[in-house]
Here is the input.
Amino acid sequence: MRKLLYGLAALASVAVAPACAAAPTSTPTLAIVDDRGRTLRLAAPARRIITLLPALTEATCALGACDRLVGIDRFSNWPPQVERLPRLGGLEDAQVERIVSLKPDLVLAASSARVIDRLEALRIPVLALEPKTLADTRRVLGAIAVAIGDPGAADVQWRAISARIDAAAARVPPSMRGQRVYFEVSSAPHAAGEGSFVGDVLARLGMGNIVPASMGVFPRLNPEYVVRAQPQLILASEAGLRDMAKRPGWPGLSALREQRTCAFPPAAYDMLVRPGPRLGEAADLLVECFSTLAKDGR
Here is the structure.
């Protein structure tokens, strides 16, 4: 589940303030309120950026600032050019000394990352962003766009993401619409609830969800809950789907018996569980799965 948190993205409530004049010198200041409710002020757009969450790496690159990255977390792997960058750990084990040595003027980290207090004590600017809903994803794009000095880029990205999700929704086979989905995010099992960004995308595609928003964004479920809920479709990673038939009671899931399932390989699954700029492509993957099942009469 810890690895998943790098791809997932605390409901983000990121507010973005426009550039404003600083006091006596009239030097422009960029002000961004992060997920902790704290305002980060930058004297100039960030030029040396470290990202400690894959979704934040992807967002930075999609906004046109990939060349400003000087380090990333261990799981970031898109776009391909980030593979050459130094890897600096993750949520629980970020390498403070190496981060300091790279002289970043901004670190983008999950709000749950342990390293934040240490970095701020060392006077390294940190923007804490951990999107878990589709709305959060939009706000995080806006926050990063302000930090790099190009606030308009966020709207361009968001419009493209939203338009692609809408286009995917128009292709969902009528026979699949409204079917109740179980989307597994870890074998604990943790699932994507209605209130998560995965749940948001599924809802925009016209699908149902066996995990109501009241249970949380990515709740850990009692395995019996899934058996009782009897989802009509099961979506998971390839490894996760292989494991399901071994769980007590799960062979009784009709979706498993009748192969109304979608198993996503690692690269595709990464796209599905990262609340970033590739969510439009993730919607395409889901619709491709639904279309295949409809064609096969499942």
